[in-house]
Amino acid sequence: MTNINWKVRIKNPMFWVQIVVAIFVPVLGYMGITAQDLTTWQAVGNVILTAFSNPYVLLLMATSVYNAIIDPTTTGITDSKTALTYTTPNSDK
């Protein structure tokens, strides 16, 4: 497993915003959908089913989620030594 401080990331609302955006933006972009097209739950459900049945869209989502998880200030898929010591999001310690 990688050296990522998952306990702190899961507590950070911005992490979840990044993950949601990383999943939905590729789907909406690939399908050419705007927010105005998603006015019913049936339309949202159709988009989700179509996205999960398309390998290319799944690859786009996986790549986006990977990019949201990695720390660009370190090499590989790890958190910095300092970030590994955090106990809460955006901690100075």
In summary, what is this structure?
The chain has 93 residues and is mainly alpha-helical. It has helices spanning 6-11, 13-31, 41-52, 55-69. It starts with 5 loop residues before the first helix and ends in a 24-residue tail after the last helix.
Architecture overview:
- The protein has helices at about 5-10, 15-30, 40-50, 55-70.
- With about 90 residues, the protein is mainly alpha-helical.
- It has a domain at about 15-70.
- α2 runs antiparallel to α4.
- The protein starts with 5 loop residues before the first helix and ends in a 24-residue tail after the last helix.
- It holds the Pfam family Phage_holin_1.
SSE layout:
Blueprint: H1 6-11, H2 13-31, H3 41-52, H4 55-69
Helix pairs in contact: 2-4
Radius of gyration: 16 Å
What is the residue-averaged pLDDT?
Answer: 88
Helix-strand topology string: HHHH
Shape: elongated
Structural class: mainly alpha
Distance linking N and C termini: 23 Å
- Proportion of beta-strand residues: under 5%
Unreliable stretches = none
Count up the helices: 4
Total strands: the figure is: 0
How many strands, which pairing sense, and closed or not: the largest β-sheet?
none
| Relative helix content | 55-70%
Descriptive tags:
single chain; 93 residues; elongated; mainly alpha
